Amino acid sequence: MKRIVVIGGGLAGLVAATKLAGGGSSVTLVSEGLGGLQLSQGTIDVYGYNPGRVRAPMAAVAGAPAVHPYARIGTSAVRDGVAFLQDALGTGWLVGDPEVNLQLPTALGVLRPTALVPPSMAAGQAQAGQRWAIVGFRQLKDFGAELVAGNLARAELSRGGRIEARPIVLDLPPRSGESDASGLVYARAFDDPAFRERVVAALRPLLDGETAVGFPAVLGLTDPEAWTALRDALGVPVFEIPLPPPGIPGMRLGRRLTAVAKQRGVRFLAGSRAIGHEADGLRLTGVVVGTAATPRRLRADDVVYAPGGFESGAITVDSRWGIRERLFGLPLAGLDDIDRLITDEYWDDPQSVFSVGVGVDAAMRPVRSDGSVVYENLFAIGGILAGACRWREKSGEGIALGSAMAACRAIEAG
Q1: ∠ at Cα 46 (378, 57), nearest 5°?
Q2: What is the C-alpha to C-alpha distance for residues 10 and 135, in angstroms, rounded to an integer?
Q3: Is the model more confident about 161 or about 16?
Q4: Pairing verdict, β 283-290 and 296-299
Q5: Topology, domain 3-92+251-413
Q6: Which of 388, 377, 364, 310 is nearest to 15 (CA)?
Q7: DSSP code of 310?
Q8: pTM for the whole thing?
Q9: Maximum CA pair distance of the chain?
Q10: Do the beta carbons of residue 195 and residue 174 sit within 8 Å?
Q11: Taking the domains of the chain in order of start, what are their residue ranges?
């Protein structure tokens, strides 16, 4: 039985750990925090902009430039990653097709492309001729129903036509006397059938033949039936609109995927930081983890490295513009023109620093500039990879899933 250490508890790390444990390996996942899913919208972005809006994300993956992670990952691994995630989560967690992007509203009322979404968002697919009511809560300051509805009503759809949208603002605090509540507090309130009944009683008389009703994405945290119960009580399709982080749909997805990983035998070292490694030539033999007591050595036949990038501190920048990968000292790609990494041209091309990361081969093993492998049994996946501005092109989840599958293939074949 292979001993595998996965570093990182975001989408890439969780999927790789789940896949490898399901294949019979002994997997330990080391995670310093809760992982990036807690901040996500709970959707799967494969390729949204390239640089214009993408309608067929898998076609864009196939045509990605040579410097992009997709050029090494390939379309097969991305498709397999999406399919694996859908299967692992089970029925009722993600709907959509990686071949075609949906157009869904944001908390600013603009339309964004994404491939797969929770069922609670599916009715928000923009189509000409729809009439939407956008519901906000006076106590939820992160969601302005007037702003969302106003921008949606002005938006011209890519295939022509418009959506009619109007705001409805309810004065319903999630807890008695609360005047400024977070999305998480509202999500917990929506888990309570009594609160949902209050919402329905207040909202139903205000509806006027709308084809769908949009809510901020707070329709339950732990109750998977919260949004369907609300939809059925209102008698009209209901959809969620993601809020700024932290993201309730991302929390749901993270909790579910963590539970699946544990069911398949993944052992979690939560709140632990990988602080060192041991190697014998070109092979890693272990990872050193800082725990609450003393450092602990985890023996490893293979190591999967999914720590994220700059946002998680896996890649750091010092005051002298020294940019480095902190754990393994891996060589970084994208540093050719150090003076252009961050510019003052805010509205111009994207800042090149966001594309800095680790270069890999087709097996996701980190490589030097001459193509030589750093460690034969180290596999880098997800946000650490060089060549993509994931937040701008909306490719983060596709890269995470595809690179996780490519690494798992190489490990299982080795």
Answers
A1: 130
A2: 31
A3: 16
A4: antiparallel
A5: FAD/NAD(P)-binding domain (3.50.50)
A6: 364
A7: G
A8: 0.95
A9: 72
A10: yes
A11: 3-92+251-413, 107-241
